[in-house]
Amino acid sequence: MQGRTHNCGQLRLANVGEEVKLVGWYENLRKVSKNLGFLILRDFYGTTQIVVETEEIMEQLSSINYESTIEIIGTVRERSSKNANLPTGEIEVVPSKLTVLGKCRYNELPFQINHSKEADENVRLKYRYLDLRNPQVKSKIVLRSKVVADLRASMIGHDFMEITTPILTCSSPEGARDYLVPARNHPGKFYALPQAPQQFKQLLMTSGIDRYFQIAPCFRDEDARADRSPGEFYQLDMEMAFADQEDVFEILEDVLPPIFAKYGIYHEASKPPFKRIPYLEAMDKYGSDKPDLRISLIVQDATEVLAECGFGPFAGNKVKAVVAENFKGTRKQIDKMCADVEVVSGQKAYWFRLDDKGELTGGISKFVVDHKDAVVSALGLKAGDFVALSAGDLKTAQKTAGVIRKTIGASFEGYMKKDCYEFCWVVDFPMYEIGEESGELEFCHNPFSMPQGGLQALETMNPLDILAYQYDLVCNGVELSSGAVRNHDPEIMVKAFQLVGLGEEDVKAKFPAMYNAFCYGAPPHAGIAPGVDRMIMLIAGEDSIREIIPFPMNKNAQDVMMGAPATVSEKQLADVHIKIVEDKKDE
């Protein structure tokens, strides 16, 4: 029988004298002599020291490679030299029998298991099953399981029903590239993997389901970032019938803080209600639509006092300022800060200081001297203050100032409270914007959102002035989710799409199920879908989202462990009516 009597994290002094059976991985052996050695046995739960005191078992171990799985039968005794850092550090097991269960056939491993995080990332991902043996790495996956379980329990406790939605569906314009799946029985036609369950959850609301949620897999053909995994991700998808924005806020403000406080590396999380910041105010005060409220710095406008100061980059532009009080940074640190801002934003940062005597110094101070009194008054400056500046059109100046604010907060002491989770809602997003590439009117966020003011706003207002019932949930400068009160009225929906050049027939063609369903009487409804991966990344204090995903792709959207994406046979292609055509290069 394979059954162990205990796991490797379980034995204590109370077990001394018992005969036990342990199983696990052969982690290490410190050999003292031919008949004495200290073996570390590791399983999912922890480690136990095995003291080998016979020449027979020492010889047996000489033929076994590290990371083989073994079974130990032996007697528990008290350790003479205890290890207070281990739960099992007061005992050891003296083996009477050792059995190999699964032999590791390699003398050398790709990396030391307990130091796998120091290895090259692609090597870690190729041997992810070894990487996950590292207790540090494994702990993040255990954390993920616990957080998801608590999220699920909390949603059910709030009377939400868990419903799974289809994975094979139709292509839908969600803002990213679809993953397409050819339909074997329908030549030339394709399924798409859902970028989100958006339409299905809205259809559930029209079906009479009152509160829906799922831990939903979503698929988007996007490039990787530190906080975004390419290919697939999971979100806590939810929707509520007969609900508005405040109903959604109330649920998430009740669900999320306890989980962050319970599992997070910081044990302090914002208490409800979270701060609400209109989008335009967020851009004006923080230079970002995902402000990190742990940072005390605020963006100020300096256009009136500095645009005509004679400094070329300011002329005719908006000028934004970030004031850091009682600044202690060195010139070398300032130069690094400016370089970092330029790398992130693609724009230069400028600066000057008010020294301890209240005199202007450094950076562009010679251009500010003649305007000193106006600048000091406008920005509320005091001796010892440091001023960092950005310039450009409004959006460029704001975004660069946002990067400045974030960089100063992270790089210098005294401007950021680091040991907490600060949540906020960014609300009142514009319904429309002018696309940077197209130059045409486009939806700013979610095309299914309800415009504030309804049909009358669409018919009478400048589209760029229309706000939507759209909201983002932000935590520590990371966007966890976008949500909205949905546009459930076909007449309003058609008008909203007409403004971006799509007529009623286009709406019917692109969203036939939802349009038709709404024509049968739809309830007002609202929802949101916080990203599970990003939440757990924040809770775990990890900088890379790949650390909290069991089997992540690399930055190039490759699964180097499984070899995906991969070529397939001609027969497989023929079955789905596809032929690969190579690009013809110009000779």
From TrEMBL:
Keywords: Aminoacyl-tRNA synthetase, ATP-binding, Cytoplasm, Ligase, Nucleotide-binding, Protein biosynthesis. Its EC number is 6.1.1.12. It is an enzyme of class 6 (ligase). GO terms for biological process: aspartyl-tRNA aminoacylation. It holds the Pfam family GAD. GO terms for cellular component: cytoplasm. It is found in: Cytoplasm. Catalyzes the attachment of L-aspartate to tRNA(Asp) in a two-step reaction: L-aspartate is first activated by ATP to form Asp-AMP and then transferred to the acceptor end of tRNA(Asp). This is Aspartate--tRNA ligase. It comes from Anthropogastromicrobium aceti.
